[in-house]
Structure formats: C-alpha cells, structure tokens
Amino acid sequence: MAFTGTPSIQQVSDRVVRITGVSLGNGASGTIGLNGGSGEISLPAAFKPTAYGQYSGVDLAECVEVTVNAAGASLGNNVQIAKTASPFLATITNNAGGAATASLEIYVKYH
Fold first, then answer.
1. Rounded distance, CA 11 to CA 17, Å?
2. Which is nearest to 67 in space by CA: 12, 1, 26?
3. How far is the C-alpha of 92 from the C-alpha of 56, rounded, in Å?
4. Which contiguous run of DSSP H or E holds residue 109?
5. Contact 108, 47 (CB under 8 A)
6. Positive or negative CA dihedral for 42, 107, 60, 24?
7. pLDDT tens-digit profile of 34-49?
8. pTM of the full structure
9. DSSP β-ladder status, 64-70 and 41-42
10. H/E segment holding residue 11
11. Cα–Cα distance between 87 and 39 in angstroms, integer?
12. Cα 55 versus chain centre, distance
C-alpha cells in the first residue's frame, strides 16, 4: 500500500522540502526518494543532498532527516521512518493498529 491523497511538494529552502496532502492507511507504507529515484513521492530536482565528504562512513541516510507531523492530531509512536542511503529512499509506515493517519506534514531536511 502507499500514500493516499495528492502530494503538495514545496521546496522551502535549498536544504528543506515540505510535503503535505497525503496520509497513510493502517499498515500502509509510502516512500520518498530523490528526483529521478524510485520513491512514490519524488523530491524536487533542486534538492541535492550529498554525503559529508570529510567524514568517512557518513552516508545520505544519516545526512538527511525526515520528520512527520499530523495535521490536528498526534501520531504518537504509530509512524515508523526507515531510510536507505544508496539510492536514498525514506519509507514511512503507519503502525496505528486499525486507524489511518490524519493528513501528514512531512519535512525532508539536509544538514
């Protein structure tokens, strides 16, 4: 399963993207990837995070932060975020136990 709704993607700055307009049904997972990648939601081409070259062993999964908020409701511990580095992919899963999430506000930030 995947995100429901129509994503609204706004690049807030060169290092921050805000995604709204989507939710997740119970047990559903949705993916976010870089432009041209395999994510269900593709980030803008201008959002170009890179791994920290000066620190060995630090990859994109560690350089990019993904946060999820619910509009007008608490998510509690019901949403799980997993990231892979190569290629970068963030997977957001709803573990609410029978309930869909409220509309989500997702931020993808590059440090």
1. 4
2. 12
3. 27
4. strand 104-110
5. yes
6. negative
7. 998 889 999 999 998 8
8. 0.90
9. unpaired
10. strand 3-13
11. 10
12. 24
Q: What is the 3-state secondary structure (H, E, C) of 13-67?
A: ECCEEEEEEEEECCCCEEEEECCCCCCCEECCCCCCCCCCCCCCCCCHHHHEEEE
Contacts of 21 (CB under 8 A, 6+ apart): 5, 6, 7, 8, 103
**pLDDT at 7 (0 to 100):** 96
Instruction: For residue 107, give the 3-state DSSP assignment.
Output: strand
Tokens of 93: 């899963």
**Which residue carries 């932060």 as its tokens?**
65
